[in-house]
Every structure is written in C-alpha cells, then in structure tokens.
Amino acid sequence: MINKVFKATVRSVLIGYLIVLLLIPIGSIYFKGFSLGWEPFWQEVTGPLAWKSILLTVKLSIVSTVIQAIVGTIIAYVLVRYTFRGKSILNSMVDLPFSLPTSVAGLMFLTLLGPSSPLGVWLDHAGIKLLYNQTAIVIGLVFVTFPFVIRTVQPLLEQIDPAEEQASFTLGASRFYTFCRIVFPAIVPGILAGSMLAFSRSLAEFGAISLISGNLPGKTMVASVYIYGETQNYNPEGAAAISLVLLTLSLLILWIINVLTRGKGRLA
C-alpha cells in the first residue's frame, strides 16, 4: 500500500512538473500567437521581413545540422575507436559549447575574426569574409550545436562489439565497407537524435548570432533576432506568431525523429 502511494505521489509530482515547466509555457505561446485571430497571425508570419527571417533560419539550421551529422559522427568514431595522446582533453572539450554563454561565443568569434585581429586582417587581404554574413551564422550555429551528435553517437558506438569489425577486416572488407555495413546502421538512431537536437537548438539560437551576423533585415536577420526586435517594438503578438512557427516546427521534427528512431530500434 505504501509503495503504491509513493509511486502515485512521484508520478503526480512529475506530471505536475511537466505541466508547469512545459505545457503551460507552450500553451501560452499558442494562445498569444492566435490572440488576435487567424488573419492577423497570418499577416505577421507572412510579412516580408518575418517570412525571410524564418526561411533564413530554417535554411542555415539545415546546413549546420548536415555539417554536424557528418563531422560529429566522424569525431565520435575517432574518440571511441582510436587511442591517441590528448584524447581525454579533446573528449572533455567537446562539451565546451554547453558551458559557455552563447554571447561569449559570439564575442569570441568577433575577437578571432574581427578586422583588428591578425587572422581577420589575413582573411580580409585574401578576400574572405567570415563575419556579418550567412557564413558567420553557420559558423556560430555549428559551434553552439557541436556536442549534440557526438554525445548521442558515442554511447551507440561503445555498444558495438569491436570483434564484429575485426571479423569484417579478416574477411577482407575495407574500413569504409565495414563502417557502412556494420557500424553505420547501429548508430543511425544516434545520428538522427543528435541532428534533431542540433536543428532545434539552431532554430532558437540568439546570443552568438546577434553579435556576428550583422542582423541585416532580409539578409542576415534570423528569426530569433526578429522576435527580439518585435518585443522591443511593443509587438508581442507578432513576436509570439513567429515563435509559434518555430515551436511548431521543433515539435514536428521531434515527433518525426522519434518515430524514425523507434522504427530503427524495432528493426535492430
């Protein structure tokens, strides 16, 4: 009896915590976004600057996610399968973007790539522009989302028996063939999950991007910066409308990836 009461209490606390922490804030965004009706909401979302900021955010988030899916998988494989000097330091530095405020990351890139830095001067002479453009946004997004794919793929790689790979090598298979036929199918759920987290995080990034993108309307202004501008212009409904689009997109991506990863789990 006591055990049942304890389980019911814990379950109630967890449900209440989720309602307060997630459902109520999410519901408030939907309520505010549609508070003036469907037509004003649609006008806010389809406004030239708003729509361009959404498209730019989605496009560059996809680009940074693809980069993370490829590079993150390679780094995770190296960290799990190879032993080398400095491996522990590299492994610990993977989580650095989690511990840094994103505004600090933006300032770091300004200091590194700015016109007064040695690297910035060299890049300027070479005709390479890495600040105040879409390239800068991708660089910032890749930095702040760097750990996601690595940390979701690593545990799956550690579960793969190295003997399976050795057996493939013994039979004459190349490393690339072995990776594609043995390793890759096992880590696909981790790649998808990590990519989903990276994509969702990219949609919401503000601190680093606001410093290095230039925030040019219609060119380098992402949705998060646009939302901030709308709040400063005393247009909370407009800010909520764009936030609602990003939130719905994140929830949709989350649902799709969960379906795909469950399917992979059943196939495995």
UniProtKB/TrEMBL annotation:
It is found in: Membrane. Keywords: Membrane, Sulfate transport, Transmembrane, Transmembrane helix, Transport. InterPro entries: CysT_permease, MetI-like, MetI-like_sf, Sulph_transpt2. Pfam families: BPD_transp_1. CDD domains: TM_PBP2 (cd06261). It is a multi-pass membrane protein. Residues 54-257 form the ABC transmembrane type-1 domain. The complex is composed of two ATP-binding proteins (CysA), two transmembrane proteins (CysT and CysW) and a solute-binding protein (CysP). Part of the ABC transporter complex CysAWTP (TC 3.A.1.6.1) involved in sulfate/thiosulfate import. Probably responsible for the translocation of the substrate across the membrane. Belongs to the binding-protein-dependent transport system permease family. CysTW subfamily. This is Sulfate transport system permease protein CysT. It comes from Paenibacillus chondroitinus. The gene is cysT.
